[in-house]
Amino acid sequence: MKSKQQKExxxxxxxxxxxxxxxxxxxxxxxxxxxxxxxxxxxxxxFLNACSxxxxxxxxxxxxxxxxxxxxxxxxxxxxxxxxxxxxIFHFDLNYFSSFLQQNDHILLIGNPPWVNNSxxxxxxxxxxxxxxxxxxxxxxxxxxxxxxxxICESIILKLIRHFQKKTTTLAMLCKTNVAHKIFREMVQNxxxxxxxxxxxxKAAKIFQVATEACLLIVQWKAQSENxxxxxxxxxxxxxxxxxxxxxxxxxxSDFSSRLDTSRNFGEVFDWNNRCLSKFGFKNSTFYSNLxxxxxxxxxxxxxxxxxxxKHDCASILELSKKNEVFENKINELVDIEEACIYPLIKSRDxxxxxxxxxxxxxxxxxxxxxxxxxxxxxxLPRTWQYLIQHKNWFSKRKSSIxxxxxxxxxxxxxxxxxxxxxxxxxxFYKKPRFSLIYSSKPFMLDDTCYSISLDxxxxxxxxxxxxxxxxxxxxxxxxxxxxAKRPFTKRILQQIDINKCLDYLKFDDLKQTECELKLPxxxxxxxxxxxxxxxxxx
Length: 539
Known about the structure:
Blueprint: H1 4-8, H2 16-28, E1 36-39, H3 46-54, E2 59-64, H4 67-76, E3 82-86, E4 107-111, H5 118-123, H6 140-144, H7 152-164, E5 169-176, H8 177-189, E6 196-203, H9 204-207, E7 213-221, E8 242-243, E9 250-251, H10 256-259, E10 266-270, E11 276-283, E12 286-288, E13 307-308, H11 315-318, E14 319-323, E15 326-329, E16 334-335, E17 342-346, E18 355-356, E19 361-364, H12 382-390, H13 392-396, E20 422-427, E21 435-439, E22 445-446, E23 450-455, H14 458-468, H15 471-480, H16 491-494, H17 499-505, H18 508-517, H19 526-537
Parallel strand pairs: 1-2, 1-4, 2-3, 4-5, 6-10, 17-22, 18-21
Antiparallel strand pairs: 5-7, 6-7, 8-9, 10-11, 11-12, 13-23, 14-15, 14-19, 15-16, 17-19, 20-21, 20-23
Helix pairs in contact: 2-3, 7-8, 14-19
């Protein structure tokens, strides 16, 4: 079992044989010939040792925060061109390399940055963490919780790209596949030029004994010419076609490079034999994890507002189960409080049925809206108030910054929408996008791993549930998201479903067919469809 320190630093040392394979791919298939090689987290130096056998570089640099690893790297290496630097990449000034760089140098940035994220490090009270500075310009809840540079590996790679974007560079990094997609989005959205963006999948379970989707990420870009125009060179295999991002029509690779004089807005997935397997990228301003010509474009803006469920970070006290009509918390205490503030709760694992109207999970709701003071007071709900006071130490331990300067028992993800009796929801964790209609006389709450929209009636909710579970919407959603991600379906993804566009393709018979495919009892009728269609047209 890995030690806390190994986990903290994402310590997955690359086997020498695999580092050799990566360098062989760069040398043989991409003809990489760098003058300078930099590895920002070099560990015991396996990548730089591999580079020594494949590349005749003037200078090689290995940065490493762990001094013991650095000492071992120095002992294992016989290459005198390697500069070993005891340094923390988060605080290291990359301008250090300026004095070694000539105008036409080709830089290779290579390595295996830590596979760990801010939330893990915060829970371990680690100092090995980048500043949460909202570089992605996120708003509201996402910005407050530091989602702008959540993954440590992502932060390191973006720092390197940002600094070296005006130099001719090849970046070759091992990372999680979802991190590679995030890097792609950042480069396109920031107009950082590149002429090659490829993902080469490998089995992390075999190489690192880690159960995650991982890849070798390769990005290449050229230095800008003197007149400021982007100088792009294309080396496109002739046996497959690409998509012209400006008119979305298929073009033969033979004339692609001559017609396109700017950086791509798509990337490709390759195997280790240099065969292109698929492509991903932007089409009509929408990011697709799989650019498939057969997918019906349903992208736009959803007429409903998708909301994330309640976030409280105190499940031991606030989440209850019911046994023999008696409530019990997660530390096995019997809970005798007013039921006015106890609501049924849906968690990700509960999305097994398309209609949900019962649960054995419950949650204590202390507020009606985020901006309000607590609705639970000693005068109105004395038993509940005393219960919270007795367990206040549990709330004091909550580490998230969202609770700073908030009442002690406050929640997030709560508002008028939470108290709707009819919702359509989805787990963010499921690999298949299953949408469920949630309905009860006392409103169901969802936890923060789930997303939902609030609706006015059961009939409307039922129609929405059928529409979202239809085959064309399911295929569209799968093309948008990376299924291997920990949370494939997020608010950003769900908010792109244009219900009006969906109704252009889905008529009453189509939704009735979906009802049959889901093996639901016959309920949906043409009047329900007409009511739903009129409501959507008036949105």
